[in-house]
Design a protein that fits this description.
Number of strands: 0
Order of helices and strands: HHHH
Distance between the termini: 48 Å
Radius of gyration: 16 Å
Helix content: over 70%
Number of helices: 4
Shape: globular
Largest sheet: none
Structural class: mainly alpha
Strand content: under 5%
Oligomer: single chain
Length: 72
C-alpha cells in the first residue's frame, strides 16, 4: 500500500477541482453536492478536460486576436 496514493484519495473533489482552476466558490449548494459526489474517474476526466482547455486557450486567443474572432 502506498501512502501517497492514500493521500490523493483523501482529497475532496472540491479541493481537487479548485486546485485545477475550477471556480467552485460561486456554485449553488446543489451544484456543490453534485461535485462532491463525483467518482474518482469523473473527477479525473473533468480535471483532464480543464487542463486541455487551458493548454488550448492561448492558441485560441491568438486566432481571435489575428482574425478578429471571425473563426470562433
Amino acid at each position: 500500500m502506498n501512502d501517497h496514493d492514500d493521500a490523493g484519495a483523501a482529497a475532496s473533489p472540491l479541493d481537487a477541482l479548485s486546485a485545477a482552476g475550477f471556480s467552485v466558490e460561486a456554485l449553488s449548494d446543489e451544484q456543490l453536492e453534485v461535485l462532491r459526489a463525483l467518482t474518482p474517474e469523473e473527477l479525473a476526466l473533468l480535471v483532464d478536460i480543464r487542463g486541455r482547455l487551458d493548454e488550448a486557450a492561448p492558441e485560441v486567443q491568438a486566432h481571435a486576436d489575428v482574425a478578429g474572432g471571425a473563426l470562433f
